[in-house]
Specification:
With 193 residues, this protein is an all-alpha fold. It contains eleven helices and no strands. Helix content is 75%, strand content 0%.
């Protein structure tokens, strides 16, 4: 039963990639030097391709065999989704706490505020480095939500005027803005592959 699912997955994946690239079955057969009937059987889920056949097809479709075969089973697992979002919430709270501790604490001095400014750049640039395939907006939503929430919570809890004065004097707001901008535009600072 598992082989049948794998066969269907590979056939559907090859078919969708071929259509996405605008290649006909005949063109795929010619470019990959694989028999047209074999490609038709693979796409109809009648057979599982051998490794050599799969490599030839993947070469034409410009995808690695491991990426083609890799099933995205995590998308359907509710526990994985909950764990993922729980981690993001905890991570955002930790980022908020680090910046808040370095800027708003009663014992902060100029050194810790300067450390907050540096940290507000280097933490997000590390996130950008490790999530380089993510879009700017997605990265900002996943890892910058805590910063945005912190900004809004300060405005609500302290009142608009006092929050601006405290936020700018303590360097909290500049740190939050640096972090948000680095998350969104940080990929432009990193070297391209």
């Amino acid at each position: 039963m598992k082989n049948k699912k794998r066969m269907e997955f590979i056939g559907n994946r090859i078919s969708s990639l071929r259509i996405e690239k605008g290649i006909t079955q005949e063109e795929l057969a010619e470019l990959s030097k694989v028999n047209l009937r074999t490609i038709q059987r693979i796409e109809k889920n009648e057979t599982t391709p051998r490794n050599s056949t799969l490599e030839l097809i993947c070469e034409v479709l410009k995808i690695s065999t491991s990426d083609l075969i890799k099933e995205n089973s995590d998308d359907n697992n509710i526990v994985t989704i909950i764990t993922h979002y729980f981690f993001l919430i905890v991570f955002n709270i930790a980022l908020m706490g680090i910046i808040g501790f370095l800027t708003l604490d009663q014992n902060t001095n100029i050194n810790s505020r300067f450390g907050g400014v540096i940290t507000s750049f280097f933490l997000p640039i590390c996130i950008v480095f490790f999530t380089s395939k993510m879009s700017n907006g997605e990265r900002l939503l996943k890892y910058g939500t805590g910063y945005i929430a912190y900004f809004i919570m300060c405005l609500i809890s302290m009142g608009f005027g006092k929050a601006w004065i405290t936020g700018i004097y303590s360097m909290l707001f500049p740190c939050l803005i640096i972090s948000i901008l680095t998350l969104f535009y940080g990929d432009r600072l990193l070297p391209k592959d």
